[in-house]
Design a protein that fits this description.
The protein has 3 helices and 13 strands. It is mostly beta strands. Strands 1, 2, 4, 6, 11, 12 and 13 form a 7-stranded mixed sheet that branches. The longest helix is centred in the C-terminal third of the chain and has 10 residues, at about 130-140. It comes from Orchesella cincta (Springtail).
Length: about 190
Amino acid sequence: MSSVLVSTYPGVSLHGKSVELLSNGIRSNRTCSIQISNHLNVPLTGPSFYNFLGVPYFNPQPAIQPKTREACSFAKKRDAPLGVKGVMTYQVGDSPLRFAVMFSVPYNQLAERNHFGVAFLDDSSVNCGLVGSSLFSRMYNDETFYGRPDRKMCPANGSIRLWIDNGDYGICGTMNERGKAIIKLDIVPM
């Protein structure tokens, strides 16, 4: 990992506000806001997402430019006693590489904890149908999916930082334990 992270600048979704303000402005008690800081010299493009539970509240930006940070949010369905769970991916520059973030914010936080997973995916993973619901299912249910250094799952605890790398890029992330959860990811060159 780079020894010093260069500051990123707020992108379109965060202009004039923080991800915390964005999250607190959502009228739901179960949400997941995701802030991605792009420390690379290439954009992150082509976002895709799948919600197992909940709906997009603020959609992912079409691109996260170099040295910027963007945010999106997902919320539980209105009047439903359910949480918010899903997966989102972005392509790294012009490469065939994508990264995925799986998130889970359960409705009953006494029975289950918030948790998230992060993984790098190459063309072979995507071409094998590892997208959408199948990707969420593998990242949520299959512990063997995380048996590589470029994939990891972690329970929410704002002070514990998850770290993965694939040799070219690294991702560092945290998630808090609140019902209005916030995931913060930094993608960096190695």
